[in-house]
């Protein structure tokens, strides 16, 4: 019997009943018929040979052959010389509870929703090459349950990369890999709540999914005032933490003013509060003013959060937290082993960074996005000279200020033209003090290279 | 400038200060020196050409060349014709907070801890082949933020596989991909708590990490009595759910008795309670009695939980839940997008199953593990005839009953011999009614093929 396990083509669970030879044959026939009828065995599936199935079930080969013959006669199976016994093509009764497939809303023709990079430029060949090298080099033990912080190879590669490219003071021992910034925030929210925090200050503009994750962790979010110098960090009081996008405010696009960078670090030192720095697109800066990570100012009070979602693809579900050393164990425990990310992708990203492929990819992507940004600015100057693009020194999106009262009508006109767009109000915290001006958030990084020009033209058509 | 972004070798964040030409040179020199001194630029790193860096920073090329020359003179950089300017080899001051590396306890020579398959037999070549095919076939949109349930390709492949191999009544619409069974339990715990459940019944023996995950979700775990027919499901009362390992009790190894399978389904129908079926190693059954999934009896009241951790590797962090249709949306919401697993591994596993590689791999592994089990039984009969192995019809581990009072001394003797072993008491719920007999849980699936024989010999040496 042992041999048959290795030689059979397909794994099949059957529970034939009966003990006499006739009874066994009938039991097997019933079990197979039922498996075909209910769709458990799909049309075309090749069955094990009668010899192999007999060995598996510990019954006589003839009994299996007879059962197969019965079912061929009934039309459930087909037998052809050379291709074995297969499930026939007759209609299959759908399994219990087969709902009609969910209807997903048709994707719009042009997608300018921010938050997703151009996925057609994902470096598939380079990624697979890195995967092959990484898997060839990995010890078998890398495939076991591992360190809740993530693989050391990736933490080491990230420490070097974040240090040189973003000015982060990073030590591999105090990096925790997560499944993106949202996942990191859920873990940090759990940790903060366990430490007794009640409130996290957030920006007036941001992602509602982040606010919701903190709320679900049992924390209140309190928006800070926002003005032309960015988020007013001088308004921080006794919050347990503050969530900021200092390099490139999301979605408004400006860096946090220098005074306010200092103010938030002073607040953290004075009160013991924690700064959560969301550096979601730090790789993409087009103009010459460098904006390093806030974390470099005070690694003991700032958690740096980064992600591969903008530089590579959200589908990788890979992000990282660079933690104050005193918090690493607590955060790793709050994350736990249940949430560890797949090691193969971690090892692949480590190899991708170490080999230089990541830098090459980011630089090529930066050039493409910069050209799109320039094309957007030029097109606006030509077709909608009254619309001012802002927040364009970096990132994959721009904010277009609109005449007062026109935001909703523009978004609706765009929808009618198959153009997906978000209004700035989408990103406004419900409790934020000031009203939001009329504006669009245009994700110019989202379309494919081929689709970008048409998307831009469609945008120009709907602008007032 | 645009060109230089694409041509530079390495991404470097610098914040030189100064506005006059001399000031800019000094600022750049200081910034580079500091990056080398603190280790942000590792020894041997190749710097951008002076032309490229000048373009990036928007300063004169001569200023960069002068700064490089200063640092070469100081010994921080080296310049060689043809290989460009590189960071020198001098000692680097470790970054702030560089703790001594954590000491991980030396791994034992022989590892018989259950729960991990033989990782040296992970099908690396086949997996990479599947990854290449999957990535070639995937639409770009597969790399976006996706369905919280996971990729449709994998849910469809699993529905077919679980139906034919495990008797699960599975519809792709009601499968949710998770990062292993622990992750699934955390999500289910959150969902149960949100529905008002307070208590989950568990088995007297199991994994403490599972009990802890439920506790962290705000649920109490109540162990059910255990006897020779398995877990006494007739003792279920008003719990919100029960967590069971019906096909192969972990770690004791027997299938749940037929009467008790019926009793738990009756209980669920009568009370609206939910059955959580942990089918952690359903692929590995060596004897002829088939034990299908409990879920097949009542898909409306049983959540089926499966994992690639035993059939492939825990490091993949891939598992799945087959849900009662009425619960799918709630569970997907409790999981949320923050926790979605990486799509590349999901697509690869789908291709691995669909191509038949998974069945081939499982059958080959089953043969290897069955041989190990037989060798274990034979070795015990020869060297320790008083020790009875139980729970050996399936799975990757066996339970060896020991003479009363010897459990701890055997585990300690094993540790001295470099043999990692778990006592049965490790898996005993602290509130379980009956005392646990003296026994070992021997994970014979854990060692490599090369290491297995020596591990078995070491085991025989420490048995009483």
What does this entry look like structurally?
Two copies of one chain form a homodimer. In chain A, the strands form five sheets. Chain A has a seven-stranded mixed beta sheet, sandwiched between helices. In chain A, strands 13-14-17-16 form a four-stranded antiparallel beta sheet, with helices on one face. A two-stranded antiparallel ribbon of chain A has the order 1-2. In chain A, helix 9 (258-271) links the parallel strand 9 (241-244) and strand 10. Helix content of chain A is 39%, strand content 13%. In chain A, helix 5 crosses helix 11, helix 6 crosses helix 11 (343-354) and helix 7 (181-194) packs across helix 10 (328-335). The first copy, chain A, has 14 helices and 17 strands. Chain A is of the alpha/beta class and 464 residues long. Chain A folds into three domains: 1-103, Orthogonal Bundle (Arc Repressor Mutant, subunit A), CATH 1.10.10.10; 110-118 and 360-462, Aspartate Aminotransferase, domain 1; 123-358, Aspartate Aminotransferase, domain 2, CATH 3.40.640. The model of chain A is unreliable at 1-8 and 91-106 (pLDDT under 50). At the A-B interface, helix 1, helix 5, helix 6, helix 7 and helix 11 of A face helix 1, helix 5, helix 6, helix 7 and helix 11 of B.
